[in-house]
Structure formats: structure tokens, C-alpha cells
């Protein structure tokens, strides 16, 4: 698959788009944020709320003769820490922050730890592992600042700017309110984490914004998003991590295939005998700890929910602990 570095591809666009690479403390590595010059000066995503990211952002802006207080508008692709961690700080300098309202829980760092603990117990996860997950999430939240005030984005909305509008696309799955920003005259999207080269973005499990007592059907929704990208792809994506994506349809199909492979692996685990999620989790991710353990749980439970929806997996409960099996 043809790859091109983000700065090289961005430099070929007729419209000025300046990528700035910021460090993160996460396994995914550094994050691209995008400076869109003109009136109003716009930043797409912000990086995490760490000293290293803030210094790198200031240095990146200074390279263009700018400072944080010059940023008048911040567009958030989704409410994860490496994308919105510094939004509140820029907001304090006077920038307007825009995000999709379906990510309000993420933006506000609303964790619902008590409910998470109950769900994990029901799935057979041991007390030590439940605590490891929640401590990992608590530590993660130290790298962001809750954003309680923002302007809501709408699907299809065209955001005016000096060099032409930005069109909002809702691409949920990785988060409920994930959006991408299209440069219509270029056919290019500033796409956050919806599709990444060499990484299958986690369809993170969280309460459904429309029905908080139920989990958001992240994997099902994400697959729908990927199918749309495969059938009607933009010319290219400028993502938050890794190189520019020039073969969007091919990568969307590849990501769908990898998700299907994961589902088949889970079904093979269940074909021998009924198992709890915790048992499968240990077998598939034996080295996962802390935040990585939560992400592994999220990925696994998301697949089990989707397999259950398809009728390929059934669950039963005994003594308050749920077991999954193939019918």
C-alpha cells in the first residue's frame, strides 16, 4: 500500500494545511494536529494536556510566527485525551472549541467507575484486574482537562474559513461523536483516528449517549463507518497518527478484515467450551496490564456484543457472573 508522510502530502495541497507533530505518553506514539491559517486561525485537535505536548505545540506555532493566543478556533475530531487534552487551555486564551455532542462524556472525562466495576464483576474480571483497569484510566485522565463548554458540531455542517469551508462528517465507532473535517475543494479529510495505517483503531466501549444504561454498540457502528469509507472513499485522509492515507477504500477493507479475524479467533475460543470474558481476555491478552488491559477488555467485549447481536454467541448468567458460548 502506497504511503506518504503527512507533511509531504499536506504540502501538495492547494489550500494551506500545516501539520504539527506532538508527543504523547501513550503506546500509539505522537499525534498530528493541523493548523489551518487564515481568519479565523484554526487548530484541528490539540494533543494531550502534558508539559511536553504544550511545549511542542508552542514551538510548532512559533515556526509560523504564531502563539497559542493567536488560535481563534479549535476543532475536535473526538473526545480522547491526545485529541482534546489542551482544548480547555486554548479556550482560556479565547479560542472557540467545537466538537460533536455525542462525545460529551469523553470531553467531560465522565468515567462512571461504579458502573464499570459492576460490569467487569459480571463478566468475571477479578478484583485486582478491575482495580488495575480503573487505576490505568485514572492515570490516563491526568493527561487531559475536562471540557464542559463547547459549540456543538452537526453532520453536514460547513464551517466557514478564509480558504474555503470545512465540511463535517460524522464517522462514529472509535468514539460515538467522532468526526472528520473535509476540505471540499481537495477531497481530503482531516480524519482523526477513524482509519490508521498499521493500526486497527479500538472501538472503545462506553455508555451509549442515547441510552446510558446500555453500552454503545461501538464495533457495529464502526463497521458501518468503515463500509461507507470502503464504498465511497475520499481522495485521501490526513490522520492523527502515522502517514497520510491515499488508498482509503483498500485500508478500510483491510481494517474490516482484521476485525473479522478477531471475531473468528474469539469464536474458536468459545467453540471448545463456554467461557467468561475474563478467561478469554487472559488467553488472548496475557501480558496486558493497566490501561492496556482496559483497552483489551473493551475490544473483546465489543466483539462479543457484536457476535451476540448476530446470533453467533449466547450468554448465560450464574451466581451473577456471565458466561458466553456458541449455540
From TrEMBL:
SUPFAM superfamilies linked to this entry: Metallo-hydrolase/oxidoreductase (SSF56281)
Occurrences of domain Metallo-beta-lactamase (ranges): 30-241
Keywords on record: Hydrolase
Annotated GO MF terms: hydrolase activity
UniProt keyword Magnesium present: no
Top-level division of the source organism's lineage: Bacteria
Coiled coil regions in record: none
Claim: NAD is one of the keywords in the record: no
Pfam families from the UniProt entry: Lactamase_B
Name of the protein: MBL fold metallo-hydrolase
UniProt lineage: Bacteria, Pseudomonadati, Acidobacteriota, Thermoanaerobaculia, Thermoanaerobaculales
Amino acid at each position: 500500500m502506497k504511503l506518504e508522510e503527512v507533511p509531504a502530502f499536506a504540502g501538495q495541497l492547494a489550500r494551506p494545511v500545516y501539520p504539527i507533530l506532538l508527543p504523547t505518553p501513550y503506546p500509539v506514539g505522537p499525534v498530528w494536529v493541523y493548523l489551518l491559517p487564515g481568519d479565523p486561525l484554526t487548530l484541528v485537535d490539540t494533543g494531550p494536556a502534558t508539559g511536553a505536548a504544550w511545549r511542542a505545540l508552542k514551538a510548532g506555532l512559533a515556526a509560523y510566527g504564531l502563539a497559542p493566543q493567536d488560535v481563534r478556533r479549535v476543532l475536535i475530531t473526538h473526545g480522547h485525551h491526545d485529541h482534546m487534552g489542551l482544548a480547555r487551555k486554548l479556550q482560556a486564551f479565547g479560542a472557540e472549541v467545537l466538537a460533536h455532542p455525542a462525545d460529551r462524556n469523553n470531553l467531560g472525562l465522565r468515567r462512571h467507575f461504579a458502573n464499570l466495576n459492576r460490569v467487569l464483576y459480571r463478566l468475571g474480571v477479578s478484583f485486582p484486574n478491575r482495580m488495575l483497569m480503573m487505576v490505568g484510566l485514572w492515570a490516563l485522565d491526568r493527561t487531559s482537562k475536562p471540557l464542559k463548554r463547547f459549540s456543538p458540531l452537526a453532520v453536514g455542517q460547513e464551517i466557514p474559513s478564509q480558504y474555503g469551508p470545512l465540511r463535517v462528517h460524522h464517522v462514529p465507532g472509535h468514539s460515538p461523536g467522532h468526526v472528520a473535517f473535509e476540505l471540499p475543494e481537495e477531497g481530503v479529510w482531516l480524519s482523526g483516528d477513524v482509519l490508521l495505517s498499521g493500526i486497527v483503531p479500538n472501538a472503545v466501549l462506553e455508555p451509549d449517549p442515547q441510552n446510558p444504561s446500555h453500552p454503545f454498540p461501538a464495533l457495529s457502528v464502526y463497521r458501518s463507518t468503515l463500509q461507507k469509507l470502503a464504498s465511497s472513499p475520499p481522495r485521501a485522509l490526513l490522520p492523527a497518527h502515522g502517514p497520510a492515507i491515499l488508498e482509503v477504500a483498500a485500508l478500510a477493507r483491510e481494517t474490516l478484515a482484521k476485525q473479522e479475524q478477531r471475531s473468528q479467533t474469539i469464536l474458536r475460543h468459545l467453540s471448545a467450551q463456554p467461557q467468561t470474558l475474563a478467561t478469554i481476555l487472559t488467553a488472548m491478552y496475557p501480558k496486558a496490564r493497566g490501561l492496556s488491559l482496559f483497552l483489551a477488555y473493551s475490544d473483546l467485549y465489543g466483539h462479543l456484543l457484536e457476535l451476540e447481536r448476530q446470533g453467533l454467541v449466547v450468554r448465560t448468567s450464574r451466581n451473577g457472573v456471565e458466561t458466553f458460548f456458541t449455540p
